[in-house]
Design brief:
Helix content is 43%, strand content 25%. It has nine helices and twelve strands.
Amino acid sequence: MNVTIEDLRSIFLFAEFDDTELALVREMITARDYTPRTIIFAQGEPSPGLWFVRRGRVRLYRMAPSGREFTLCIARLDRLPCMGACPLFDGDKCPANAQALDDTTIYFIDRQRALDIAADHAGMVTLFARVLANHSRYLMQLSSGLALRCSSSRLIDLLLTYADERGRVTAQGVELDLGVSQQLLASMLGATSQMIAHDFLRLERAGVIDAQGKRIVILSLERLKGMA
């Protein structure tokens, strides 16, 4: 698959790179396609490099010794497009599994090649800094939500975030397509499916949302904000 400079610039981490810097990155990139449920890389395996989501969504999750899965985040083009940053710097193994949720296109940069080029090109160092900053912001939001709030508040925060990012205003309210199952949503929020089902039911009984599977309509944004 041919990767163009325009393709790279669509990933916001590269948005401010000039054409010369993007041409350099383009020489290092290989594009790989994955079908839904395919494992892209696995927890505990050596990490070969950096992965950028160009199309689709990728679930990053860890397996506990008990066998329970905990979803860390959903990587996608517009929010958290880069994966594999930690092993890039410390040379350690992958701390999580990455699984394609959709038909997914990934751009891959070999670890050693990226480090070699970074020694001579400031643009690559800038990319690394942006990747780490993006991850740090996301992890700060995630950790504060997990540490300070119950599952209900975390669910409300997620619904409000989705409403802002991708909500569609209709006559009934703000419509969302969660795009994930309730089980996966619970894993993302560090809760059980039963807890999330109970939280949805409570919000429905309060007349704040109308939930039909993965489709959610927020009937009153102000009331939902007041319940956070």
